[in-house]
């Protein structure tokens, strides 16, 4: 061993003790039963010598009756699937950053095939299979097959069409994708150039561009195109189109299909074969148009059914709803890494040579980290509520009640936008919270960021979606005088007159700890911003022109409304019975942190609309600091409660046992650059340069 290596080994050894210090933060009397998972909080003298949870193979489940009723009832499923994936070498993912695109993609195919094999062998239920795919943690064609192709047929196909196509899709005898976006049109769905002409005399070309799973895998797609019959246009509809032969996987005549190329980051979303597709007079049978909304008869006549045509956008509503829950997962993952590492990392501290300060104890670290922790919980709760809302609207649609569809659209669009933007920013913040090591691939954060950021764009650009919310809000405000009572998430607008006048009652910092006070401040801010926009809009002769001109303000108003939804759903959650000693109090603290931090970040809105005074703002800020101190002792327990395995986290910094430094050192040596001591290229490039310097020096 060279002396340099010897030094490094000593250096690592000297930090092992610090590395284990994560357990300092697990000394607390509170026991958590989050997501149905019991996190034992041990007082072990500030040292945890636990191996990874996969190694222990322990299941930390409490008895059923102890589980939190208000979490989805699938904790056992989730926990079992996480362990199954973590213990299977095929699902290894620590080498992703080193693989070429081809290797990466083939590896994804291998994992998807293996997952499917296990699903069949173990006779997994739909829920178990979906959890398994989640924990495999690799974007793949299967996401689009199960997440969009199948729902599109379910939502937009007739009974007959569902009976024909769904069994094939469920058995994966066909693999499908969702082909809507084109090279030239994504947000503007009505502007799609792909046409489906019933009279087969078209010679137009258009390129579909982006669909996941399309490039190399899908045999079928639901393609969105403008329907033309008898020379007339009938809007955009979905069509099931076979793309590849089921015998040899070759594209069918008239179809050109391929991958669109590398995307942002290494590894990351490059496991997915986002594709380009060109049709050249491809003919499909009439009954492959999804006809729940509109039927085309044998003679080419269009018959509109009684369901609204917006149902054609239904798959997007479904996926946007799942993306909100997904945001909570991605955020909680990043926060888990940053929190655990912040408890391990020490910088500066006493001058007397004593132990340095854990960075989690710095107020700046807390004020950056704890609001993200609070957001992870907030998004989980609002995601659960949104799931309920979606189920509710689906049931109503089945009973021909379409009244809640506009609200479901506004809520899914707005919350998708709010939560994905916040999560993308938060992952990057977590990287910075981990200092230099956060930039290492082995921290897990760079890849998480690269995989996650497109969520701000796919399923609707976030600004475009907020503008949809703003339209909905302006419509609601415009109807206030007409006697139509706003309901659901806009019910507060019925109190617009009061809210426009109301004055916040806070006089001392503790007054901010009343849910009703917080709610009223958020409601007043949202109403005032919406009404101000509506008043400005009314000054325009042409409302569309006004909407374009005021769109930046409208987006702000939509954000205020969506933040109110998240805050109010968090508060509602806390009104339920929450078992587990101290759990409710901790969640209450997180709820206040979520709300008061938003208030702090958007102070301009609250002050300029006169909802609160500068003095009240300053009291809220004082209170935030004291709330951070209350979270601090339980911060590790609160992230342990997410119940992530080390495999799923994929982060040396976020290891459950806190053994960060030796593992970082170990990881470094795995890099292919370290395969040889003298690098490839030394003879060609380094040596001649050095020799040249030597010659010059001698001259
Ligand atoms: C193992 C399981 C795997 C699960 C997988 C899911 C998990 C998710 C996590 C990761 C998956 C990652 C995969 C990502 C894949 C990505 C796929 C895609 O991106 S697909 C393409 C998505 N495209 C878009 O989102 C386009 C965005 N554009 C639009 O939605 C629309 O065009 C528009 C912006 C809404 C505008 O449309 P249009 O011009 O028609 O509308 P308007 O004239 O403004 O409105 C007309 C009325 O219609 C109402 N409306 C609009 N949209 C909807 C809707 N979706 N539902 C209901 N109603 C809607 C609108 O409000 C207007 O109403 P009125 O004002 O007239 O009352
Ligand atoms: C990783 C990934 C996976 C995808 N998977 C699929 C898939 O499986 N199937 C599929 O069909 N599609 C898919 N897409 C495409 C995706 O749905 C679109 O890219 C998305 O809807 C945004 O549309 P766009 O690209 O046309 O953006 P654009 O609309 O061109 O946006 C560009 C900019 O213009 C702004 N803008 C646009 N319109 C307005 C407006 N009216 N007012 C104000 N500002 C506006 C936007 O805010 C944005 O800043 C995927 C995309 C990505 C990145």
Structural summary, described in words:
The protein is α+β, with helices and mostly antiparallel strands and 699 residues long. It has 3 domains: 71-137, Orthogonal Bundle (Butyryl-Coa Dehydrogenase, subunit A, domain 1); 141-305, Butyryl-CoA Dehydrogenase, subunit A, domain 2, CATH 2.40.110; 314-640, Butyryl-CoA Dehydrogenase, subunit A, domain 3, CATH 1.20.140.10. Helix content is 51%, strand content 8%. The chain is built from 23 helices and 13 strands. The chain has helices spanning 3-19, 53-56, 75-86, 101-121, 126-136, 141-156, 159-170, 314-344, 363-398, 405-433, 445-452, 462-478, 496-501, 515-538, 543-549, 551-574, 583-601, 603-608, 614-631, 635-640, 646-649, 660-669, 682-698; strands spanning 32-34, 37-39, 176-179, 195-197, 207-209, 220-229, 232-242, 255-259, 275-279, 294-296, 302-304, 346-347, 357-358. The strands form 5 sheets. Strands 3, 4, 6 and 7 form a 4-stranded mixed β-sheet that branches. A 3-stranded antiparallel β-sheet has the order 5-9-8, with no helix packed on it. A hairpin with a 2-residue loop joins strand 6 (220-229) and strand 7 (232-242). The radius of gyration is 28 Å and the shape is globular. Flavin-adenine dinucleotide (FAD) is lined by residues 144, 178-181, 186-187, 210-212, 269, 274, 454, 457-458, 460-461, 463-464, 467, 551. The site of flavin-adenine dinucleotide (FAD) has 21 residues, from strand 3 and helix 12. GO terms for molecular function: acyl-CoA oxidase activity; FAD binding; fatty acid binding. Its main location: other. InterPro entries: ACOX_C_alpha1, Acyl-CoA_ox_N, Acyl-CoA_Oxase/DH_mid-dom_sf, Acyl-CoA_oxidase, Acyl-CoA_oxidase_C, AcylCo_DH-like_C, AcylCoA_DH/ox_N_sf, AcylCoA_DH/oxidase_NM_dom_sf.
